[in-house]
Description:
By secondary structure, the chain is mainly alpha-helical. The chain has helices at about 5-20, 35-50, 85-90, 90-110, 110-135, 140-180, 185-195, 210, 215-230, 240-255, 260-265, 275-285, 290-300, 305-320, 325-335, 340-355, 360-375, 380-390, 395-405, 410-425, 430-450, and strands spanning about 30, 60-65, 70-75, 80. The protein has 21 helices and four strands. A hairpin with a 3-residue loop joins strand 3 and strand 4. Helix 15 packs antiparallel against helix 16 and helix 16 runs antiparallel to helix 17.
Amino acid sequence: MTRFSSRAICALVCAVLFLSVPLHDARAVSGIRDTEIERMMWEYATPILQAAGVPKNEVEIYLLSDPSINAFVTRGSSMYIHTGLLLEADRPAQVIGVLAHEIGHIAGGHVARMGDAFAAARTPMLVTMGLGLIAMAAGSPDAGMALLSSGQHIAERTILAHSRVQESAADQAAITYLERIGQSGRGLVEVTEKFRHMEVLSARNQNPYVRTHPLSSDRIQALTNRVEESPYADRRETRAQLFAFDMMQAKLYAFLNRPDLVFYKYPKSSMSQPARYARAIAYFRDPDIDAAVAEVKSLIEDYPDNPYFQELMGQILFESGRTAEAIPYHQRSVELMPDAPLLRINLAQAMLATEDISLNQSAIDHLRIAIRDEATNSFAWHQLAIAYAREENVGLANLATAERYFYNRRMPQAMGFAKRAQLTLDKGSPEWQRAADIMQVALLEQERNK
């Protein structure tokens, strides 16, 4: 008879717990940045946040390059939106409905409360699974395996029940917020209807939205009833909203798909603005720079005050090595949208790439303005370090490099460059003190990691 020590039982419990955790697809997911798309998401989210009583400055929105239809929130009120949701949505109301639902989770503190669900599930699960391991050690493998399986099912039922309650609460909160801002909630119903049939599939075949937002017929019916009772149930999007949405989808599709697919979806026979926008990007990525430039020029001639067309032209010229030609377009984009930090960073990058020292101070000015709103943008700090180095301002160059590593969470390097910065900065100055702060935070994080 094989005997199990208490240590072996604990190890086996840990192994079973590890195997019971659902694993995400092994697919690379990266964040993307784009002023046009980010602005649209904030335009959708801001009135909902106000209706929910959630301060806008406490929320962050991130775009993830992932083809699956999904959105979710994490601790710290961070909202993540998959590009798949933006591309597969039929209209703005569907995205707006999903954002309202996620804001319902934020306002309800649901992410923080998930710890309660795990705590509630952990004790009965461990007790049942522990009894199973004891039964196996005592020579009853069948009974032991049954108890192990039962323990896992207890945990799953507890957590899923908690999750379904939160999902229903977020639905109802979303409709309340949408009513407060005079919008229909039918978009949210349409999204849930898309996945009604998927809940019967295995987790491997389900869309991530179904796995992270458990559905049920009762939940969908309750949501539908609430929407149809709203005085705004039949309210539709404005023409401007639909047009901006089509432009966003054209841009996103063109950057994320092969050029041949883009040309198929947006053929040359179509002279609509979204089609021309998509084709310009596809030509750029093909690459057929002359065709891309010609397409964007036609858009700028028709819409000279569109900052995103100016930005795209600047990007095409810059990335094809025509740096000096790119600068006027990036400058125009900043003139048209001076409060967009990413546009200023593009302009500063182009200025620095020319290696024209007469443009150096202007690049510094643009970067410092951008960093006011993009303090965590490590690329902006890297560009600022280059600019300060060219000015032979070693202290500020080292401090900017320290900031770059700090926001990349590379604390040893951040501490090293902060120390170097202090050697040439005036002691007690704001810059010297910032270097000290970086050193202190980096040291504390290193201690925690130990």
